[in-house]
Amino acid sequence: MRRFLLSMFLLLGLGCCQTGCWDRFEVEDLEIVQALAVERAPEGRVRLYVQSISPKHMVRSSGGVTSIVSEEPYRNRSIVSDTVFEAIRDLARQSPRRLFFIPNELVLVSEAYAREVGIGEVLDIMERNPEARRIAWLAVAQGDLAALLDEPGRLVPIPSMNILEMIKRQNLTDQFATIRVGDFIELLENEGTQPYTGMVRLIPNEAKLQEEVDLVPEPDLNIEMNGTAVFREDKMVGWLSPRESRGLLWLRGEVKGGRSIKVMDSLTEKPVTLQILHAKTKLRPDIREGQIYIIVDLQVESRVVETRGPLNLGKPEVLRRLEDEQAEVIKAEIEAALTKAQQEYGVDVFGFGEVVHRHYPQEWKEMKKEWGAFFPRVQVGYQIKSIISRTGEFSRPVFRD
Amino acid sequence: MEEMKWMGQWWRKVLRRFKRQKTTPLAANKRPVAPERQRQIYNADELKQLPISRSLKKNLERLKAIFGPSGDAVFRPFRLGVGEPIPAVLVFLDGMTDKTIINRDILKPLILESRQARVEPPGKNVLGWAKESVLTAGEIHTAHTMEEVVTAVLYGAVALLVQGQDRALTLSVQGWKSREIGEPDSEVLVRGPREGFNETLRDNTTLIRRRLRSPNLVLEDLQIGKISHTGVSLAYLKGVVSPDLVLEVKRRLERIEIDGILESGYLEEFIEDNPYSPFPQILHTERPDRVVAALLEGRVAILTDGTPFVLIVPAQIISFLTSPEDYYERFWLGTAIIWLRYLALIISLILPSLYIAVTTFHQGMLPTRLLISIAAAREGVPFPALLEALFMEFTFEVLREAGTRLPRNVGQAVSIVGALVIGQSAVQAGLVSPLMVIVVAVTGIASFAMPAFNFAITLRLLRFPLMLISGVLGLYGLMLGILFIVIHLAGLRSFGVPYLSSLAPLHISDFKDSLVRAPWWAMAKRPVEIAKLNQRRLGRALQPSPSQPGSPQRGPKK
C-alpha cells in the first residue's frame, strides 16, 4: 500500500515538475501575430512592427454577415527599442494581450536595415526563441514598412497575407526567390554558399480610376514582389532583377514548373510562349588544371501555351527549333544572374562552393578560405535537355497569314 | 495490477476497522434466540435435516409452518383409491404452476381415473405405483427430505405427499407468465435474428439449444443465492472449450455466497479478475446468436434466471468493440465499421482532453486559421477551457442519464430542453463557446457508437480524469493519462486471457477479428488465446472461385 501511494505521488509529483506545460494560456488571451517587420531607427536602435489578428473581426468578415467590414480584422503596432527582443517585450506597453509569435509566418526587414545593420540579430532571435518558427518566410522590403503592412488587400483580410500568398505562388513567375527563415539560416551557416531572399515593394495601382466616382475607390497602391536580395553573410549586398532571379532559381534547382518562358522561333521569327511543366537541375563540378568548372545539368519539359502568328507545331522540326531556342533562353537567364553575382557582387548565392565541397572535399579544405576569390573565376558549362512535350488542344492556330 | 491488489487489501482493512467499531456496542446487548415455534425461519441446512414423516398430518403441519401465511401456497387434500382411501395432499404455489396440467395430468388420473378403473393402490409402494402407472406428467422426481420438497415447490413444482410414505413426489409443472421472446432493445441489428433472451432461464437455454443441435453443448445448472436460489446455467461446447476454463468459471461461481441474485451483474462483480478496474472484463449480451458465436469460439456463457443478460467469458477488449452484425454483413462493411469504432473509441476517450490541452497549452500546434476560429469563438466566454469542458460534459451526462431513466414520452421533452437550452442558449448567453458544444456533441456521438454499453460507460468515466490532467499538464498530461490506461489494460486479464490479446500478446492470425473482419472463408481458426485445444473451424481451401476447365471442382475434401 505504501508503495502504491508513493508511486502515485511520484507519478503526479514528477509529472507536475516537468517543463513545458507551465505557461498555460487561454486562446482568447493571446494576440496572434501574423507578421513581424524590423527597420532601422535613429541612434542605432530598431523599430519593430507587429501585425496581429483580431479573431472576432476576422471570423465575422469571412462569415459574410457584413459586406463592408467596419473594423479591420488586424491591428498594427510599432515601437522603437534598443534590440529586437526588447522591442517585443516593450510592446506589452501597447498590447492588452500576450503576443503569440508561433503563428507568425512573415518576417520583413527594410532594405536599409538589411544593407547597413544586417539581419543577424533578427535571425538570432528567430532561432533562439522556441516561440519563433523557422518556417516563417523572410523578405526584404523596399519603401515604407507601415504602408506595406497596411495595404487594404480586400481579397485577403490581413495585409501580410497578401505577401504570403504571393510568396507561396512564387513558381507561377519565378521572378523572385523567397526563402524561409530556417533555410536562410542554413545558407548562412554553410561556407559554400551565401543567402538570398525575395524583395517586396509598393507600386502605384494602375487600375485605379483617375476621376472621382461614386464607388468605393480602388486602393492607391499595390504590393509587388520584385526580384531578389543577395546577401553576404547577414548583410544585403545587391539585388537581382526579376530576370536574374530566374537564373538564380535555375541554378538552385528551384524551378518547379508553372512559369512561362518566351521563345522566338529562329526561322519564322514568331514568338511562342511556353509554360514549364517540370524542370530539374543538377550541378556537377570539375577541377582541371586549377580551373573550376561547374556543369549545369538541366532537364526541362514544357508545353506550348500561346503562339503569335501561324506556326505548324505538328511538325517535329518546328518543335526541335523551339526546344533549342528554349535552351538558349534558359542559358541566357542563367548567364545574366551569373554575371551579376560573379562580376558585380562577388557573392556565391548559387551554392557552387557547396557543390565543390561535396565532390572535392580535399581540395575544398584549401579553397574554402579564399572561396570569395575563387568564385568569380568559376567557369560554367551547360548540358540542357529541353523538351516540348505538349502543344495544347490543337496543333495549328486558328489564324492564317 | 499490483497496485490494485494493494488498494484492495487496504480497503478491506479499512472496512474491517470500520465494522469492528460499529459492531462492538451492538454485540453487547445481543438478543436471546427466539424459540423454534415462534421463529418460523428456515434455512436450507435446517430443512435438509428435516425428514419427511410417515404421518401426513405432521408433514402438512410442517409445510404449513414453512409456507406460513403465504396466500399463494395451495394445499389440496384428496383420497386415493376406492376401498380404503389413502389420504394424500398436493402442495404447490399458485401462479408458479400450470393449473391445466395439474388438473388434467395429476388430479384427474389420481382421483378419477384410478377410481373408474377400480385400481387399488398397493399399500406399500403407493408412490412408485403413482409415478409409474398413474401420473401422466412428464418430469417426476422422488424427494427424500423436506428441503427437496420445499425447493421444488418454490420453483413451481407440485409435491405429492401420501399418508404413510416417508418420501414425496415432485412433479415439474412450471407454468408462469413470462415475457415474449422479442427483439432485444439494447442490441439492435439491421441484419440478424430478431430473437432475444427473456427473463426465464429455460426459455433462454432453449434459444441456445435450438441454434446448436449438438450433444456436446453442455448446460450445467447451478444455484446461487442463499435465499433466492437463483438458477444459473453454464453453457459451453465440449471439445471446443478448454476444460480448465470451465473449471475456473465453476470454481469462481461456487465460491459466491450471497443472499440473492437479481441480475447477472451481481455475478459479474464476483468473478472478475480485477475487481477494481474500470474496464468491464466480462461481456454481456441479450442475443442468443452472439452467445452461440462465443460458444463456438470456445468461450463459456453464464445464463442467469431472471435476467435476459447472459455473461460471456473470457472477453477481450476487441469483444467489446464488435457487434454480431459485423459478421453478418459482407466483410468490407464489417472491416470499415470496426475501424470506425476504433476511431470513435479514441474520440470518445480523448477528444475533450485534446481540445483542452491544445487550446490552453499548445496553441502553436493549431493551424493559424483554426486558432483564429477558436479564439473568436471563445471571445467573451467567462470560463477557462477546462471548466467549460467539464461543465458541458457534466451537462451532457446529466441529460443522457435523464433521457435514459425517464419514461419514453417525457424523454423527448428532455432532449428538446437539452438541444435548445444547452446547445443554443448557452452559446447565445456566452457561457460556452460553440466549438465546445461541437466537441462535446461529437464525443457523445462517438461514445454512442460503442456497441457495448458497459464499455462506453468506462470511456465516459475515464474522460473526466483525462480532462483534468490535460487541463493541468497539457498534452504531456494527456499522454501520461493514456499511458496509464494502456499500462493498466496491458496487465488486465479476463479469466486468464490477456485483455489486449491478439494485439498484445500479438497473434497475427487473430487480426482477422480485430484489425479487419476477414471474409468467412478466410477465418479458418478460432481465437488463439481462447480455443487452445481445438483451433480449426473451417475446412480447407474454401475461397470461392470459378472452377478451372480441366481441374477438379474446388471445395472441401469429401
Distance between the termini of chain A: 99 Å
Helix content of chain A: 25-40%
Give Rg of chain B in angstroms. Answer: 31 Å
Instruction: Give the overall form of chain B.
Output: elongated
Structural class assignment of chain B: alpha+beta
- In total, the number of strands of chain A is 14
State which percent range the strand residues of chain A make up: 25-35%
Label this structure with key terms:
heterodimer, A: 401 residues, alpha/beta, GMP Synthetase, Chain A, domain 3, 2 domains, 10-stranded mixed β-sheet, 4-stranded mixed β-sheet, 13 helices, 33% helix, globular, B: 558 residues, alpha+beta, 3 domains, 5-stranded antiparallel β-sheet, 19 helices
Give the helices and strands, then pairings:
The complex is a heterodimer of chains A (401) and B (558).
Chain A: H1 2-17, E1 30-41, E2 45-53, H2 55-63, E3 74-81, H3 84-90, E4 98-100, E5 106-110, H4 111-117, H5 120-128, E6 137-141, H6 145-148, H7 159-168, E7 179-180, H8 181-189, E8 196-204, E9 221-232, E10 235-240, H9 242-252, E11 260-264, E12 271-288, E13 291-307, H10 316-345, H11 352-359, H12 361-367, H13 371-374, E14 379-390
Parallel strand pairs in A: 1-4, 1-5, 5-6, 6-8, 13-14
Antiparallel strand pairs in A: 1-2, 2-3, 6-7, 8-9, 9-10, 11-12, 12-13
Chain B: H1 2-28, H2 36-39, H3 44-49, H4 56-67, E1 73-80, E2 86-93, H5 99-116, H6 126-134, E3 140-143, H7 146-154, E4 157-162, E5 168-172, H8 201-211, E6 217-224, E7 230-237, H9 243-254, H10 264-271, E8 283-285, H11 288-297, E9 300-304, E10 310-313, H12 324-328, H13 331-360, H14 368-378, H15 385-405, H16 408-428, H17 434-448, H18 453-491, E11 493-494, E12 497-498, H19 511-514
Antiparallel strand pairs in B: 1-2, 2-4, 3-5, 4-5, 6-7, 7-9, 8-10, 9-10, 11-12
Helix pairs in contact in B: 8-11, 13-17, 13-18, 15-16, 15-17, 15-18
